[in-house]
Structures
1.
Amino acid sequence: MDGDSTDQVLASRWDLPLVVFSMVRVAFGTLPLWAKALILGLFGSVVLWYGITWQRERGRRAR
């Protein structure tokens, strides 16, 4: 292999978020609105629960 050609392509830092966003958009694009709302509500509840738990643990460690 000579030094003029490259066999590797470097990814930018936005490639992974773009791929994840595209996959989510395609996966949920055909779902009815009630299913999208249910999934978003469940995901939001988990994130909120994790945030509250993390904040409580952080407060206990600070004392």
2.
Amino acid sequence: MPETAQFVDPRRWKALIFIALAQLMVVLDATIVNIALPSAQADLGISDGNRQWVITAYALAFGGLLLFGGRIADLWGRKQTFIVGLLGFAAASAVGGAALNTGMLLGARALQGVFGALLAPSALSLLAVMFTDPKERAKAFGVFGAIAGGGGAVGLILGGVLTEYMDWRWTFFVNIPFAIIAVVGAVAVIREPVESHNSSRLDIPGVVLATTGLVSLVYGFTRAESDGWSAGPTIGLFVAAAVLLLAFVVVESRVKAPLLPLRVVADRNRGGVYASLALAIIGMFGLFLFLTYYMQVVKGYSPVKTGFAFLPMVAGMITGSTQIGARLMTRVPARLLMGPGFLVASVGMLLLTQIDLDTSYPALILPGFLLLGLGMGTAFMPAMSLATHGVEPRDAGVASAMVNTSQQVGGAIGTALLNTIAASATTEYAKSHAAGAPSRTALQLQSMVHGYTAAIWWAVGILVLAAVIAITFVNAGQPESGGAVAGSGDGAAEDAVPVMAH
């Protein structure tokens, strides 16, 4: 294969700082508002029925528009899309922090989702086109993977501190300095290769079908959580999602310039990454939610103490991502990091199924968190890199968007699915143990813990399934010095990616 001269940007490492900062802001926002929600609800008089929309409005806009955002990044240019996303996210955060009523807050959250859908895929695809050397790419994605994995837990800490010592509004305002610093840095140091742009026309039918299909899917799981899985609206939304997404696949196979070129997901390695990441996030999102309530309601921790309790998980993720994943991904096949990583995380999750009313944090929760973080960090790092492996530069934005889409859809599914399992188990336990309970409060707390452990058992199984998919489908080998990168264009064979080009 003829050697192609590639321009290596001398400012790429400085650019990584600002790309990582923007990614941290987006990931933080997924959890920071959760801690502040009770205070915001009381302050603005949000009803219990509308409370979930503070989370759902963001998830719907973000998850539904990610593929569109990824393709916009390919068309406009990733640097430009990145800056627009940052500025819009900051403006939406300012509106959210200044919200005077429910409608204003929900509108701000939806706007955050819209601009987040521009920002997230452009950030990841900038890394994909700026870091071409295998070893450098491994280090860059190690940093990015650690932030993507640990940022949610950091959001819980920051949310607790801001809510407890300042005001819930600062969970929104805190995004503004993040965005301003990232914009200034992006303008100064990010230089995107011009040849990576995609000048094709935008696939409008694909945009409409993908957005409405993903919104229906995410909203369907949200309704399942509140109305039940057999409710008419829930079933209707799932049927609509299936029809719309099937129509999307048919359209994409026929149009000249598809929103999501099927070559991006047809590759067994990328397909395996998207599926295993989605499953892993299903388990993780549920865990954050249950353990937050367990520590605050059952153990009586303050919001700040709860946030700090998650720190060992963050430390484990950073260690797994930068010290294990980044060091080994240029030496061993990706599946030998992803599969074992998810299995180690499932062992940590398995420990957490043993929580009870008087569980010791150092004896049980701490080792569970450490194993969970270590395993997820090790698996996330090669997954993030492999998700854009072998794609043509013109498809880098949409391939990156698929990573975020799998995470967002996985998060929505995980929250609804595991919440429903936990609620059902809690109710059943309370009914069957009502007679012998020493007090109503004790029964309520014990039932709650039983519900959490039942859901965490499911999360263990889901993580094991993620490991099986990673080991089965991901067959890219370790990179070879100077190895060629197979393209994702038409004619590229499914297994024509013998090396992981990082």
